[in-house]
Every structure is written in C-alpha cells, then in structure tokens.
Amino acid sequence: MTQQSDRAQRQHLSTCGVAVAVVILTVQREGLTVLLIHRAAPPYAGYWALPGGLLMPGETLDQAAARKLLGETGVADVYLEQLYTFDAQPDDPGPRAIVAYFALVDAGRVVLAQRSSWQPAWFPVDRAPELAFGNARIVAYALKRLRAKLGYSNVVYSLLPEHFTLTQLQRVYEAILGRPLDKRNFRKRILSLGIIEPTGHLERTGAHRPARLYRFSRREPITF
Amino acid sequence: MTQQSDRAQRQHLSTCGVAVAVVILTVQREGLTVLLIHRAAPPYAGYWALPGGLLMPGETLDQAAARKLLGETGVADVYLEQLYTFDAQPDDPGPRAIVAYFALVDAGRVVLAQRSSWQPAWFPVDRAPELAFGNARIVAYALKRLRAKLGYSNVVYSLLPEHFTLTQLQRVYEAILGRPLDKRNFRKRILSLGIIEPTGHLERTGAHRPARLYRFSRREPITF
DNA sequence: CCAAAAGTGTTCAATCTACACCCATGC
DNA sequence: GCATGGGTGTAGATTGAACACTTTTGG
Question: Is residue A71 in a domain?
C-alpha cells in the first residue's frame, strides 16, 4: 500500500467502523510462514502486524482483502477466504471490527512490496513476534481452520505450481500439519478426494525415477 | 428494540460501518422456523427482515448479537454463534458490512416482543417471504451451517427443555434436517457423541412405556 | 554401484447403514 | 384389547490406519 492511500484511509478511519486483515501464509524451507508488516507509526509503532486496513468506498470485503493481498505480495487468483470477524481491542482507535481473511500463496511467485516503509517479512507461524491489535488470535484461528480444511478441500492449490508431483503435494501437507504422513495412505486419500488429476506428463528432474505430474482440477476454492 | 434506541441507532448509522443481524431459529410443529420482523419505515418499508442493528458504543459484536436476541425474544444463555460477515447491498444506506449470527431457541420459552411496531413473527424457513437487505442469503447460510453442525456438536441444546427424551431429541434433528432418521442408529450415534447424559429419572406422561430422561452435559457451545 | 525419490497392496479395526420386533402404559 | 410410542441388536459394507519392498534414474 502506498503512503498516500494509507493517509487517505486514516482520514476515512473515523467514519468507517470496519477493517479487513489478511493472514497470508506460505510454505518455505522453514515450514509454514506468515507475512507480517512492521509498523512505523502509532498505534503500535514498532510492532509487527497483519496486512490490513479500512474498506475503501464502494469496495466489498472480499475486494478489500484481495487488494491488500495484491498490494503486499503482487499475487491474485489464489486461495482467499473469509475467516471470522473479530472485535477490535477495546482501547484501540479506529475500526470496531476486523474482518479476517486468510490466503495461501506460492512463495515462489511472491514479490514482497519492499517499496513501502512497512518492511514486510515472512515469519514461521510458531515463532512469530508479538503482534499489534491483538492479531495473534487471528493467526491462531487461521492455522486451525487451514489444518481442518486440508482434509476435505483443495485449499492448497495456490501453494503449488501449475504442475506438481504427489510427493511435492505431500511435503506441503506435512509442512502445514507439522507432522509426517504415510505416503501410500496420503496418495489414496488425495486421489479419492478428486481434487487433482494427472496431466499425463512426467517430471524428469532429479536423480530418481521420473514422477507423474498432477494438477488441481479446479484452481478456485471448493465449498462444501 | 424500542423506538428510541432505533432512532439513536439511525443517527449513529452514518458514523458506524458495521451492523449485526441474527438468524433466530426454533423448531415448532411446522418444522424449522425463523424469526422475522416487519419493517414499517424505509429502507425496505413493508418488507420482512432479520432482527439486527448497529453496534452500540463500547459493545462487542457478540454482545450486540445477544442484545438483539434478548430484545426480540427475551431469552439469553442459548446457542449463539457468529456465522459470516456479509457485504451490505451496494445501494443500501447505512453499514457497509453485516456480521451475521445464528441462534437456536426453545419456542416454548420465547415471548415475542410485541410491544414494538415491528410485529415479530415466525416463518417456516422454506416458506419465508422476500427479505430486506439481501437477508435471504444469510438465512440460507445459517441453515447450511446448522445442518453441518448437527453431526458433531451440541448445537441443539437450547432447542430443548432441561430434561428430554431421546425421541424428542430425534424429532428436533429430523425437523432441522428435513428427513426421517433411523431410531436405533440415531440413539447409538448421539450417545457415542457424549454430549448428553441420563438423568436417572423417567418421563411418565403419555399412553406408552415410561421414557428415560436425558440432559445435555454442557449447556454452552462446544467448539472443535 | 550407490544414493535418491517414485511407486505400489494388504490386513485389521472401527465405523456406518439397513433393518424388525417386543414391551409398558393409558384409555 | 388396542393404540401409542419406547426400547433394543446384528450383519454387511465402507472407511481409515499401519506397514516394506522394488524400480528407475543421475552421478
């Protein structure tokens, strides 16, 4: 987000009671990480916080969340879902309610918006610093929901490239759940879920037997 | 809600961007019914709508929802849960976002707030009139969530009196799901869920064998 | 030839589904 | 004595969990 629009939002703030916050998650070598921005100005100057801000005129909640996501990461068309609406902390100025979203992005496609003074950075979800605005409860909630959705949805489609192997997919699941999974059972369950399909091509990289490539049948959230 | 506080909220309206709406459901002879109020004044004069309104100063979202529920029905301490946050319809005045809740109440305990000009009334969920503020999507969502939660939670505790028979409980499940359930399977599943326990007493009313009475182990939402 | 990752089936336990009859009571 | 609703068990199918070895490739 630019400094201009930030200022515009601050003026808007006293007349608008609702804000969005986005829990942007990705999987890297360190495991599951969350994108945080560093606050330079009060309130909570010096703290880290979730990307977020006020609704702009004429904008829907989903659009505001997508705008925040795009502004911080440069990505669109990823898994983005409303999580829950939290009360603001009693003593915080500004909005009364925070509509939280969570998004999953492929770390490889993200270009962090270093242009702003916000210094966005990835933190492992279990080693995040203390957060502004009581945002920690939002991250905890996102994590819980994500883990629950792994079992019956295609949430992770935006954490992987267009084509991928079952082993890559399994690594993502393991990173999110924080525990190893049995290979054969994983393959059976995933295939019976019907969210992915073979491309018919093979991956021929690496010092091993070529691997069948898959893709997600639908690259959009499936709701049940 | 009184006319005074309604007027106070209308003034508050232009400075506050968030409202709550409550889908209050109960089970009656006709099946699952939803509480609606009749709008006398614009916007949507003459339409039926969900009980709702703006957040009052210093109040949390949950408190606002509970206040609305108490104001319309006189009940508290029932199942009340946040559902989802919806965008207001683009052309509607007032709040930008509607935080929807759903509540389940025992029709026997409710005293409808006939004092106001709002004429609250129960409508079968599948035969409700056209609703103001695009509220129909909220009712549909509540219904879907309620049915999903039946299988693994104690949601229905506030639809039944303190003591009840398994058959009464089954009637409630059938009314919500809209289909008959097998008696033996229902009893096995419910008992294995561990949300109810026998009281040790018997119901001796009716021209039939006395029935064992049960109660819910916890009369508060269980979160999983 | 060796390291690295891909691929593949079976057994057992637990859970879910379908299904029918006898019993205690009030009238 | 009969109508009403209460109470109970089993067999078959499905689902989920545990578990180990062979294959192909690049270096």
Answer: yes
Could you list the residue range(s) of the whole structural domain that residue A178 is in? 155-216
Of B93 and A25, more confident: A25
My answer on whether A145 and A178 are in the same domain is: no
**Is the Cβ atom of B167 within 7 Å of strand D at any atom?**
yes
Would A221 be classed as within a structural domain?
Answer: no
Q: For strand D, which residues in window 184-203 of chain A come within 7 Å by CB? A: 184-185, 189, 192
Nucleotides of D under 7 A from a protein CB: 3-10, 16-20, 23-27
Domain boundary among B116, B149, B182: B149
Instruction: Say whether both B31 and B119 belong to one domain.
Output: yes
* Amino acid B17: pLDDT: 80
- Whether residue A222 is contained in a domain is answered as no
Interface check for B223 against chain A (CB to CB < 8 A): the answer is no
Q: Domain check: are A75 and A109 in the same one?
A: yes
Residues 6+ apart with CB under 8 A from B196: B154, B169, B190, B214, B215, B216, B217
> Does the nearest atom of strand D lie within 7 Å of B185's Cβ?
yes
Domain count, chain B: 2
B81 and B18 within one domain: yes
Number of other CB atoms surrounding residue B170 within 10 Å: 17
**Can you give the pLDDT at residue B76?**
92
pLDDT tens, position by position, B99-130: 999 999 998 888 777 766 778 999 999 999 99
CA distance A85 to chain B (A): 7
Same domain? For B138 and B174 the reply is no
Nearest residue by alpha-carbon distance to C1' of D24: A209
| DSSP bridge partners of A211 | A203
Residue A25 belongs to a domain: yes
Q: Are A211 and A128 in a shared domain?
A: no
Distance CA A125, CA A143 (A): 8
List, in order, residues 6 or more apart from A173 with CB less than 8 Å away: A150, A156, A181, A186
- Let me know whether A175 and A68 are in one domain: no
Question: What token pair was written down for B205?
Answer: 């009313």
pLDDT at residue B37, rounded to an integer: 93
pLDDT of residue B9: 44
Q: How far is A156 from chain B (nearest CA, A)?
A: 22
Task: Please report, for the domain that includes residue B208, its CATH number.
Answer: 1.10.10.10
Q: Is the pLDDT of residue B90 over 50?
A: yes
CB atoms within 10 A of CB B175: 19
- pTM given for the model: 0.90
Contact B112, B23 (CB under 8 A): no
